[in-house]
């Protein structure tokens, strides 16, 4: 029980840092992000209009030990700016998508620490620099999209280790 409470506090602190860094203002920190409440879980529109935000945080909870962790962060077209905060790396995410925002700076290599990631979408931002070789550690990765940024250089050879990529 104690470790569960500790984990949720830690994850919420990470979300605070992310919100502050990227200017995400509509998360309600009085609500538990693992309750699927409205400020954390905005059901996406069905008609696929690109003008409408797609912003979702969901958790995976274990029925056996009751532990929850944040599994999915999607922030499509949320007009977010700034750089990717280091705190992402503390989250055991399976899905991270910040497509179609205005995020600048290099792609942080420490995203390679989120080895639980299956879906990583960074396309349509203003990332610059090279693809971090640390991405070779994302051995569970199935989807990776990086297009429409200002990236330079070659694909790092470590990506050859991503045998689950589809
Ligand atoms: C945030 O959540 C709390 C608790 O559910 C609620 O009382 C409050 O009105 C919410 N704030 C906003 C701005 O929606
Ligand atoms: C929140 O939503 C996710 C995805 O729909 C689901 O897997 C999870 O069980 C939900 N959590 C709660 C507490 O309802
Ligand atoms: C929202 O984003 C997720 C992840 O990219 C995607 O799977 C889903 O189809 C999107 N929903 C809409 C309505 O665009
Ligand atoms: C999209 O998201 C941003 C930040 O989360 C918000 O400020 C903006 O009003 C949203 N736009 C729409 C059309 O909902
Ligand atoms: C995350 O990755 C960075 C750079 O690859 C590394 O220096 C750091 O020790 C890692 N942090 C954790 C908690 O594993
Ligand atoms: C692939 O992974 C193995 C085992 O972790 C490592 O020894 C090797 O250097 C990696 N290959 C590349 C090209 O990074």
Task: Please sum up the structure shown.
This protein has 166 residues and is α/β, with parallel strands linked by helices. 13% of the residues lie in helices and 23% in strands.
Please tell me about this protein's structure.
- This protein is α/β, with parallel strands linked by helices.
- It has 1 helix and 9 strands; from the N terminus they run H-E-E-E-E-E-E-E-E-E.
- The chain has one domain: Ribonuclease Inhibitor (Leucine-rich repeat, LRR (right-handed beta-alpha superhelix), Alpha-Beta Horseshoe), CATH 3.80.10.10.
- Strand 1 (54-61) and strand 2 form a beta hairpin.
- It has a 5-stranded mixed beta sheet, covered by helices on one side. A 4-stranded parallel beta sheet has the order 3-5-7-9, with no helix packed on it.
- The chain has one helix spanning 2-22; strands spanning 54-61, 68-76, 81-82, 95-97, 102-106, 119-121, 126-129, 143-145, 150-151.
- One 2-acetamido-2-deoxy-beta-D-glucopyranose (NAG) is lined by residues 44-45, 48, 54, 74, 76, 97, 121.
- It comes from Gossypium barbadense.
- Residues 1-20 form the signal peptide.
- Its main location: membrane.
Write the layout of secondary structure elements.
Blueprint: H1 2-22, E1 54-61, E2 68-76, E3 81-82, E4 95-97, E5 102-106, E6 119-121, E7 126-129, E8 143-145, E9 150-151
Parallel strand pairs: 2-4, 3-5, 4-6, 5-7, 6-8, 7-9
Antiparallel strand pairs: 1-2
The chain binds 2-acetamido-2-deoxy-beta-D-glucopyranose (NAG) (6 copies).
One 2-acetamido-2-deoxy-beta-D-glucopyranose binds at residues 136, 157-158, 160-161.
């Amino acid at each position: 029980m104690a470790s569960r409470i500790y984990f949720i506090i830690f994850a919420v602190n990470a979300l605070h840092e992310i919100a502050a860094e990227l200017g995400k203002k509509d998360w309600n920190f009085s609500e538990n992000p693992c309750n699927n409440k409205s400020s954390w879980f905005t059901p996406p529109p069905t008609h696929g209009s690109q003008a409408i935000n797609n912003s979702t945080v969901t958790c995976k909870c274990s029925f056996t030990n009751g532990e929850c962790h944040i599994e999915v962060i999607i922030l499509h077209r949320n007009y977010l700016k700034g750089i990717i905060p280091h705190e992402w790396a503390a989250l055991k995410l399976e899905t991270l998508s910040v497509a179609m925002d205005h995020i600048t700076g290099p792609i942080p290599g420490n995203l390679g620490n989120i080895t639980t990631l299956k879906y990583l979408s960074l396309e349509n931002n203003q990332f610059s620099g090279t693809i971090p070789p640390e991405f070779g550690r994302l051995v569970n990765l199935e989807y990776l999209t990086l297009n429409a940024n200002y990236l330079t250089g070659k694909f790092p050879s470590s990506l050859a280790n991503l045998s689950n990529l589809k």
